[in-house]
TrEMBL record:
InterPro entries per record: Cyclic_di-GMP/3'3'-cGAMP_PDE (IPR052020), HD/PDEase_dom (IPR003607), HD_GYP_dom (IPR037522)
Keyword Membrane: yes
Record-annotated HD-GYP domain positions: 245-433
Protein name: HD domain-containing protein
Keywords of this entry: Membrane, Transmembrane, Transmembrane helix
Keyword Membrane carried by entry: yes
Pfam families given in the database record: HD_5 (PF13487)
Residues forming coiled coils: none
Transmembrane segments: 12-35, 93-112, 124-142, 154-179, 199-217
């Protein structure tokens, strides 16, 4: 069994372990609820109903990740719920899990396809485990009266809730990174960085809303649910508009990328092949979701400068041109991209993609963006493959020849790390078992 196959099987086992742990926890909670009966049933029903509604009004985050901010915030609030309108509550950890699970499943079932959506199942498992962890930190201390014996009144109580929420957020980010890494092959460190970055965005709003609901419920009761869920719902609308803007940007870039193909400057599908290879290399080198998105944009538009040429390059193979001509085309493409309104990093990456790794004095150019180095290797690889096919070489022989050419120029034109990443990616593609 190859190393890649072993890693794939380990990822599958890891995902199943997370799902199994969440399912067993939910079954234990449901069993305890049936045997002992719910404490404060109308309160539990109110929280479950809002969690279900929150599951139905999800929002898409960068990287095509879906999240239910309202459902998560309300579940977290129930896990940290102490007094309700001045009266103590008595629900425990297992009831918190049972109510969260019931609300989540109620939101997933219509439509039924939600139960077959792996991303939603991952999110549901994460929520159950995270909320169970938060409830374990809070509920035993509250129900045993330990919090009453410690001077945790006023601001100190808020600090305690903040600590519980922060630990629960880190737990959720870690679980999300584990599942994201298993699903996409992204390195764990990069996946965790993505999740922590998301935590600083809408994640902070989720945590703050959960804390406010749990705190204010002690004074205003269940009215805290609609009172503090409404601002989060408005924030979701803003995130949804931002997602629409991102989608429009992606469509614009795809259209511009095809301009060189329609005009006959590059072979059909060249931009997409380069982008796919570049993203595979980016994942191999540990880039996060945001950097991968910018890398894909730049790779799709890397040849846009060819539109300024009077005569097309044969087969659009810019990697076979003189160095100075490659750089001129890259600079012209960067100027075009800068005027399209896409993120400025994209034009900066395209402007540098033809620059060699080493300066004329032999020193390594550390200012060269990693994305530019990746795109240069991906573009040269596709151009060399096309040239090999033109000479009648089989695909396997063409790939070996292209890799050998890139290795001969590594350290001068091409980044050695990127070339070796290409070798690893190609090896896994040829030998999946």
């Amino acid at each position: 069994m190859s190393w890649a196959r072993a890693v794939l099987q380990a990822d599958v086992i890891l995902v199943r372990a997370v799902h199994t742990a969440a399912a067993l926890l939910l079954l234990a909670a449901a069993g305890a609820l049936v045997l002992d009966g719910p404490a404060d049933p109308w309160v539990a029903l109110a929280f479950a109903a809002v969690i279900a509604v929150g599951e139905r009004v999800r929002v898409t985050l960068p990287g095509d990740r879906e999240q239910a901010p309202i459902g998560t915030a309300v579940a977290l609030a129930y896990a940290m719920l102490g007094p309700l309108r001045g009266l103590p509550t008595s629900h425990g950890v297992l009831q918190v899990v049972a109510v969260t699970g019931a609300g989540t499943l109620a939101g997933l079932i219509p439509p039924l396809r939600g139960l077959a959506d792996q991303a939603r199942l991952d999110a549901a498992a994460r929520r159950l485990l995270t909320v169970g962890f938060a409830a374990t930190l809070f509920q035993p201390l509250y129900n045993s009266g330990a919090l009453d014996r410690v001077p945790l009144a006023g601001p100190a109580y808020g600090v305690f809730l903040t600590g519980v929420a922060a630990l629960a957020s880190l737990c959720d980010a870690t679980l999300a990174a584990v599942l994201h890494r298993a699903r996409t092959g992204l390195r764990f460190a990069a996946a965790l960085e993505d999740e922590l970055h998301s935590l600083l965005g809408i994640g902070s709003a989720i945590v703050a809303t959960g804390m406010l609901i749990s705190l204010l419920a002690g004074e205003v009761g269940l009215w805290a649910l609609p009172l503090f869920c409404t601002p989060l719902l408005l924030a979701q609308a803003s995130f949804r508009r931002a997602a629409d803007v991102r989608a429009t940007t992606g469509q614009t870039i795809e259209t511009l990328a095809r301009a060189t193909e329609v005009a006959g400057y590059t072979p059909p599908g060249h931009a997409r092949r380069v982008a796919d290879t570049a993203c595979a290399l980016g994942r191999e080198l540990g880039l996060g979701t945001r950097d991968l998105a910018l890398l894909e944009y730049a790779a799709l538009m890397h040849d846009i400068g060819q539109l300024s040429l009077v005569e097309p390059v044969p087969d659009g193979a810019t990697a076979l041109l003189p160095q100075a001509e490659q750089q001129r085309i890259a600079r012209l493409g960067s100027e075009v991209i800068r005027r399209t309104g896409v993120p400025r990093q994209v034009s900066q990456q395209v402007a540098r993609l033809a620059d060699p790794c080493r300066r004329p004095d032999g020193s390594y150019d550390r200012s060269l963006p990693l994305a530019a180095r990746i795109i240069r290797v991906a573009n040269a690889h596709d151009d060399l493959l096309a040239a090999a096919r033109g000479r009648g070489l089989a695909d396997q022989a063409g790939r070996l020849e292209a890799l050998e050419v890139l290795r001969l120029e590594r350290g001068r034109l091409y980044d050695p790390r990127v070339v070796e990443a290409l070798a690893r990616v190609g090896h896994r593609a040829r030998d999946p078992d």
